[in-house]
Request: fold
Amino acid sequence: MRLHSAAFGLLLLLASTAWVGAAPQIGDDAPDFSLPTVDERTESLSAHKGKYVVLEWINTACPFVQRQYTGGHLQKIQAEMAAKGVVWLTIASSAKGKEGYVTTEQALEWLREKQPVYTGFLFDREGKVARLFGAKSTPHVFIVSPAGKLLYSGAVDSIASADVADLPKAINYIRQGLEEAMAGRPLSKPTTRPYGCALKF
Reply:
């Protein structure tokens, strides 16, 4: 019995190691993907090579996501980055029947209400791209360099809270990382621990 338990534990360890190793690490090539968009296009990462790209995983029902979009907070940062040529891809990976799943009509309604400044709103309903990157929560953000390398993975900001009042006190890691990269400096925080709602595959 002990032998079986030990063997099972080893299998779990190997499986978890394989999962971690499958996700790109900082400095690795970001894996390419193609996904359908809310406006019935197909968006791919490789189409934006030569530009900085933000990949933002969201669940519109998650309070941690809602916090970021309250009062135009994240929209302001999106607009700042768009003015600098940054591509912003928002990705919804909730499966049908799970919290955060949105139809095209529901996504369009959310976009009309929140008015984000984005390049594309993408559907990843089977969670394939989320698994490819190792996305764990909503929100979970990745920054990809113009050369296609992964520069950042982690939280939107430094305060793990759903309270809007904490936003002015938090360091926004997206803005900080992009400004450092554009200035030719290494990121002071290339990885942080993402927080929010678990992805619903």
Residues 156 and 173 are 6 Å apart (CA to CA).
